[in-house]
Amino acid sequence: MLLSFRITSLASNGSNIYTEFFFYDYMLFKLDYCNNPRNCGSFNDDALLCGIPVKNYTADPDVRVWMGLDGTYSRKVNYSASGVKLSYVSYFPYYICEFGVLSTIQYKCDPSINGANATVNHNLIGTCFIELTIYSSYFCQTCPNCPTTHGTCNQMNGWCDCDAYTKGIYCDQLNVKISSIVGPTNIGGIVTIFGDFSNIYTNRNSIKINIGTLSCNSVYFTPSTSQITCIVGAGQSFQKMTFSDGNGLSSTYDGFYYKVLCSNDCTPGGRCNDTIGTCVCNDEALGIDCKTLNLQLTSVNQTFVSGGQVFLNGDFSKVNHLALNVEIGGQQCIDPKLNSLFTILQCKIGAGEGIKNITITSGKLSFTKDGAFQYQYYTCTNSCSPPHGSCNIYNGECVCDNETFGNNCQFIQCPLNCSTASRGTCDGNTGKCICNNKYTGDACQFIQCPLNCSTPLRGTCNDNTGICTCDNKYSGDACQFTLCPLNCSAPHGNCDLNTGICSCNNKYSGIGCEISECPLNCSTPHGTCDVNTGVCSCNNKYSGNGCEISECPLNCSTPHGTCNVNTGICTCDNKHSGNGCEITECPVGCSTKHGSCDSKVGLCKCDTQTKGLLCKESRLLIESADSTNSNGGTTTIIGYFGTPTSLLTIKIGDSNCTNIKVINETTLMCDIGEGDGIHNVTIIDDDLSYTAINLFKYVNHKKEISNISGGAIAGITIGCVAGISLLGAGGYYQYRRNKKVKLFI
User: Fold this and answer.
1) Spatial contact of 241 and 252, defined as CB atoms under 8 Å apart
2) Global confidence as pTM
3) Which of 392, 393, 391, 359 is nearest to 375 (CA)?
4) What is the pLDDT, as a whole number, of residue 94?
């Protein structure tokens, strides 16, 4: 009879052997074929064989087969001696042949072939396809005893077709699909079973679960039908799990076991094997708790007590990917790094002494080797001339006593070391100092003063500093000069340092040239003379070195007037007046309403609404006015308005604007009543006004905004807007938003 099997996977094992799996119920057929370099059409029996002609599948609970094309495990297949054994080449790869599909597979009855044994014939059809015929006594069977409750006989293939609730040759097994189980410890507890239990969910209240000889109680199905929980008593090791429905149907699972907890925390270097209760370490860890770094330390290159580079020799290949920390005797060994062969771990240690333990850590993993490191002491290359010196084992240098010096303590120490090298040198053979110039004493500790301070009677020498302290009447580094009285009141005279007598300049006299004559005797009685300085102190209204000048008030505000020094009276120019010519006159006609005279500069100072020499030119300007609809409303007027007064009015056409709001110097807002057409806009503030021609417009459906362009336009043309200032004809500024533009002069 003809049987149909479905393809469940296609994969390459990396050796140019391609595999197809055909699955039907408990039987699985594995068809292997390889990339044979022969051209299509040149088939022979040898070319069709690929590797071992027969594959033998035995019971193996860990074998999984891909089902379907979605890459997910859909069921687990156990192979037994009753499985089908066959292997053959099916076709060449798709890049040699045009298509990558099998032509036909026929399964035929042969009563002489016992059980699962099968024979295969193949015939080449056309160029690239093989026709396969499989013979076995399995294909001769009629339906087994199919239970009428859960199975029916398939007359086409001779096997039972089970309903969704059952599976198996005789449809006598519950259709349970278990993917994994989380079991309790050996004291018992909750069992969580994961898988697909949708086929038995409707009968869940009748399902019983046994683990070994024990009943797993309180069975609960989750609504998702992917999980079952129950509670089992104490047990140990692997046990068979059995599902039963009380009506003779059951299903078994061999993967359940009681967990055996590890006595130690196995992390982070390993995991607990809960089937036997011992830690299983990763490559980088060792020990019953997997807390020991998996490395070997065979030897250590020591360093001196001053510290330095340490080289740890051994095998660090299992931990080369970890960040390692090294401590020697509790001291951090910095910058640890491995060589390329992972046989040397190098780091830098600080000073220390004695025998130390070495500890290497990475997170919670550690390795310790006691007494593996010892600091080395230095030895001196010289004898250190005992009893005058001894060797410092911490740096390898001689330590000399107070009487000797040198790298071997071979020289006699001079007093005070000759007060350092800048003052003298020590004769190590005699222990006496040879002093440099300016220094003296057994230890060159004294500084000589120049000329010995011109002794006697002129000064004393400070031999610590080499500086003379001169007596009165003497000066100079060596007290070699004789001082003059009052130092001749320099620069009023010159001192003869040899005799100490002053030679006074003109206008000065006295033994110290301390008396000064004043010019013109200060024009007495206009001033008095200070004989110490020779400077006149003039009375009020007089000045000059000799108080010979009569002063004018405010110095006539030069250059606005000239002073008569004989009389003290100012003569002012045409634009200034006052006793001191301090008043600047403004041009005639400075506006009193919009300006004021600044007497400091003689110019009119205008308010914010006017300009010009006399503050009579208006700066008012209208640039634009927002349109409203025929019902009127609020309009915004842009231009320049300075600081408006309380007399400000706005007219649009013949209508006065109400509710006027001054936003700033360039923006006004007001409310206008209903109307239509185009109108002039006029602002009036006291005696100032400005009219913009045809600037405002009533609109019905859309807002229109007119803008003033360029400068003021004389005359009116339809569609144009002109601005007219009612004061002056000078230049004015158009104010646009955030920008002032000079329009014309």
Assistant:
1) yes
2) 0.38
3) 393
4) 40
